[in-house]
Amino acid sequence: MAKRVSLRPEWLKAERVEDIYSVSSCVSNDFADYFTYWKHNGFWFFDSPEIIKELSQQNSIELTRTMLFFYEAYEFEFNIDEGEWTAFQPDPAFKTDIALPTEKRLEGYDVVNFDGSQADCSPLSCNSLARDVETNRHCLLASFERAKQLVEEGIFKNAEPGNNRIFAVYSLEWF
Predict the structure, then answer these.
(1) What's the CA gap between 38 and 95, in Å, rounded?
(2) Are the CB atoms for 20 and 8 separated by under 8 Å?
(3) Using CA atoms, how far apart are residues 163 and 119, in angstroms rounded to an integer?
(4) Predicted structure pTM score
(5) Residue 73 bridge partners (DSSP)
(6) Which residues pair with 78 in a beta bridge?
(7) CA distance 65 to 109
């Protein structure tokens, strides 16, 4: 995903946070309202940076000042109502053939709610949970284990509706 990374908004009272690398587009916007182009995969992201570039060129979408991210999702999502982890799959209506990056830099972990097929909110930033939960300067958690622990403890339960998924967030270099 290509995103326009935003600096920490004034309303987010977490001084250690400098900018927002969240998976959701509530604070740091995606490069476009890309759903309307139907080039995304079954996870509602993109299979490769080339697809993002092609879509941008074909539709005169500016990519300058965007950052490129690769998201790696834990294969289970936490069903808040049932209090258990359940497997999830990509939407079979879309081809999913993810090109794994050869070089990536782990930036941290995000917890994202899903009330349907696509990422809704990242409560650490969207709901200001970073005010009370230790995050890094990009508003991400330091480890998968910490993210899973917080989910299971119910920290995200009343933040947003839907199931919680944990994502490793990697930054990539544009080519």
Answers:
(1) 11
(2) yes
(3) 10
(4) 0.94
(5) 167
(6) 85, 164
(7) 23
Q: Could you report the per-residue pLDDT of 6-42, keeping only the tens digit for each?
A: 999 999 999 999 999 999 999 999 888 777 878 889 8
3-state secondary structure the chain: CEEECEECCCCCCCCCCCEECCCCCCCCEECCCHHHHCCCCCCCCCCCHHHHHHHHHHCCCCCCCCEEEEEEEEEEEEECCCCEEEECCCCCCCCCCCCCCCCCEEEEEEEEEECCCCECCCHHHHCCHHHCCCCCCCCCECCHHHHHHHHHHCCCCCCCCCEEEEEEEEEECCC
What mean pLDDT do residues 140-152 have? 97
- Tell me what pLDDT residue 39 has: 84
Nearest to 49 by CA among 109, 117, 101: 101
pLDDT band at 153 (very low <50, low <70, confident <90, very high): very high
